[in-house]
Amino acid sequence: MTTPSTADGLNIAMSKITSANQLTSPLLSLPAELRNQIYTYVGLSTIIKAVQSEGAVVSSTVMSQITLTNALTSPLLRLPAELRNAIYTYVALSTIIRIEAILSLSATCSLLVKYKFHLPGLLSACKQTLHEATPIIYATCTFDTTQGDNDWRWLKSDCDNKVSRQITSLRIPEARSLVMAEEVWLRLLQRRDTKCCPLNLPSLEIVHVKSTPADVRRRPPRVREWFGNDTLKVRAEARRGVSGFEVD
User: Are the beta carbons of 201 and 165 closer than 8 angstroms?
Assistant: First the structure.
């Protein structure tokens, strides 16, 4: 075989080799679906070793071995996307995510407050469920600030993260809603903006006030004004069920 002397000749030679491979190669003559399955199995068993200056570091392949295994064998992930989304929605409808305030003292005895979101275990099952279920769960479930004595502090914080920005439903204690009303009235007297909420909650649609309907009727809190959201739905949540009426 004559060695090509020019770039054009080299391209012609390579084209001939490619064509010959497509006609004679046992792998390349298989249907595309079978070839892709073979590539997947090869990927499952491949480990790339990356060497850095400090030493050898073993890293996973471009496709995570665990993720690929789950995609091929998981009863959930093998379902059609529509059914998976329906399952995620059912999980979200029955999920209450607690926003917990964790208090501590610094070296100078000043109060430090950290906030923990108790997310459902489904979001930590694997990368695929995290990616698929997160927007559905955040948009459907209720975030709760009533379970701990200090959880309400989150409402007065400047916490800004991707979780907060996706919250659509929030539960607050009745005592806190009364404080909100007082803060709003004070700002009205001072001719100031009645929005008191320092949080960034662009997706918030509904606030549940955890109390008896009678208490809320007697002293209706001005929750909409406090959050600065005129379209916000505010509902009283009775101790034995949800009353379903707007209170502001």
Answer: yes
- Per-residue pLDDT tens over the stretch 165-183: 999 999 998 888 889 989 9
pLDDT tier, 56 (very low <50, low <70, confident <90, very high otherwise) = very low
- Between the CA of residue 111 and those of 102, 106, 114, 149, 159, what are the distances in Å? 10, 6, 10, 15, 16
Q: Which residues contact 25 (CB under 8 A, 6 or more apart)?
A: none
Model-wide pTM > 0.70: no
